[in-house]
Write a structure and sequence with these properties.
By secondary structure, the protein is an alpha+beta fold. It folds into two domains: about 1-70 and about 115-285 and about 320-435, Outer membrane efflux proteins (OEP) (Up-down Bundle), CATH 1.20.1600.10; about 70-115 and about 285-320, Outer membrane efflux proteins (OEP) (Single Sheet), CATH 2.20.200. Helix content is about 65%, strand content about 15%. The protein has a four-stranded antiparallel β-sheet, with no helix packed on it. A two-stranded parallel ribbon has the order 1-6. A two-stranded antiparallel sheet has the order 3-4. Helix 7 packs antiparallel against helix 8. The longest helix is centred in the last third of the chain and has 70 residues, at about 325-395.
């Protein structure tokens, strides 16, 4: 039964390998910086953010048009019917002939010269919204880069896991061969054979699971950077050996508070709320405009009889517009704007606290990953030594197969934990870089 399970596991791994090969995957070694460049070029999410910046820029340009004069040009053409004059009892008294074709041309220009600062504040608010869009793009870009690092680290971790399992399978197969010889000599029981075969089956399934997870991670990373479907992304083997600048906690915190997009966005939102407050206050102030116009109309119907001629007139003056309802309505708008300012200030404070917590957590986890890597390096050395001792005792009939399997599992666990710790060093380092505004 155990042999059947072993054969089944090997067949599953074989078929998985055949399926992967059938896809004709093309390996491509990429560094993290190359991934970042591809994402900048191909990421759909970043394209959406760039469009947001363009929209904000156009909205600012629209706001600036309020400073320009308005110019209205109108032209009409009409058919004028005869005039019927009626008595007081509504009976027709006379029919007056009229020129039947009528037309007019008019030009009217106006310029707002004073509106209590509402126009300038609207333009400044649009500029602040453009800054928010740029900060949102920077935040999305940093998030995507960190996601790329996470997937990149997953590829490294899963490949390391698969290699660890494969090395342990080779070791287990060699041990199984030796146990077979001992079994033929009557030195061990069949139970030892069964346990050894079962371990190989479990390791085969672990290889399959790691391979499947590797394919999933590759697919996700490939989509993020827009590479062809047949690309097998291979992490640069030297990326863990790259120099990762180490700074103290205070330095990272100062960088985060000064550079992290969310912190800047929170402050800009406070400024936007203040601009909205200033705009609300302008409703208390009348608007002053300059205006001028010129018109040409035909026929002249004010004469009797009507004249089929053009009359031309022009006008120029100053207009004052004041909304009287603002005397009792504007206080509500101002109160709302004041509340919005207070809320945005609270959001900025909360954002600062969140960033402090994130930096603290990332800094601790980064140092923890470094310490774990050093610790597991020692664990691997001890686990290897323990395995050699136990295996030697087993072949000398001084230890049980259970002891050998326990030593094997300890060795396997130490190797897997070392791979995870090394990957976490890299990932937590980039977490800190993201918070410091360096991605």
């Amino acid at each position: 039964m155990i042999k059947r399970q072993t054969i089944l596991g090997l067949l599953v791994v074989l078929f998985a390998s055949v399926e992967v090969n059938a896809q004709e995957l093309v390996p491509r070694v990429l560094t993290v910086e190359e991934l970042f460049t591809l994402a900048e070029q191909n990421s759909q999410q970043l394209q959406v953010s760039r469009t947001g910046i363009e929209i904000a820029q156009q909205q600012r340009e629209v706001a600036e048009t309020q400073k320009r004069p308005t110019l209205n040009v109108a032209a009409t053409a009409s058919y004028i019917g005869d005039v019927r004059i009626l008595d007081t009892d509504f009976s027709e008294a006379q029919n007056v002939k009229m020129p039947h074709f009528g037309n007019s041309f008019s030009v009217q220009a106006s310029q707002v010269v004073f509106k209590g600062g509402a126009i300038n504040n609207s333009i400044q608010r649009a500029e602040l919204n453009q800054e928010v869009a740029s900060l949102s793009f920077a935040r999305n870009r940093a998030d995507i880069k960190l996601l790329l690092v996470a997937r990149y680290v997953d590829l490294y971790r899963l490949e390391r896991q698969r290699l660890v399992y494969q090395r342990n399978i080779e070791l287990a197969q060699l041990r199984l061969k030796n146990i077979h010889n001992l079994y033929k000599q009557g030195m061990v029981t069949r139970n030892d054979l069964i346990r050894s075969e079962l371990q190989i089956t479990n390791l085969d399934m672990a290889v399959l699971e790691a391979s499947n997870n590797l394919s999933i991670a590759n697919q996700q990373l490939r989509q993020l950077v827009g590479l062809p479907a047949n690309t097998q992304i291979v992490p640069d083997s030297s990326f863990l050996a790259s120099q990762m600048e180490s700074r103290d906690y205070t330095t990272y915190l100062d960088l985060a508070l000064g550079n992290f997009p969310d912190i800047k966005t929170a402050q800009v939102n406070v400024d936007i709320a203040r601009k909205n407050l200033e705009i609300a206050k302008t409703d208390r102030i009348p608007a002053i405009t300059l205006q001028a116009g010129n018109s040409l109309a035909r026929p002249i119907t004010t004469a009797s009889p009507a004249l089929d001629m053009y009359s031309r007139g022009w006008n120029a003056g100053v207009g004052i517009n004041y909304n009287m309802s603002s005397l009792y309505n504007v206080r509500h708008s101002i109160a709302l704007a004041n509340t919005a300012v207070a809320q945005q200030q609270q959001v900025a404070t909360l954002q600062r606290q969140n960033i402090e917590n994130e930096v603290n957590s990332a800094f601790i986890k980064h140092n923890e990953a470094r310490q774990r890597s050093v610790s597991f390096t020692q664990s691997i050395r001890l686990a290897d030594e323990n395995y050699r001792i136990v295996e030697k005792k087993y072949y000398g009939s001084l230890a049980l197969i259970v002891d050998v399997l326990d030593a094997t599992n300890a060795k396997l666990e130490a190797e897997l934990q070392k791979a995870n710790a090394d990957a976490n060093i890299f990932y937590t380092y980039y977490q800190l870089q993201r918070l410091a505004g360096n991605l």
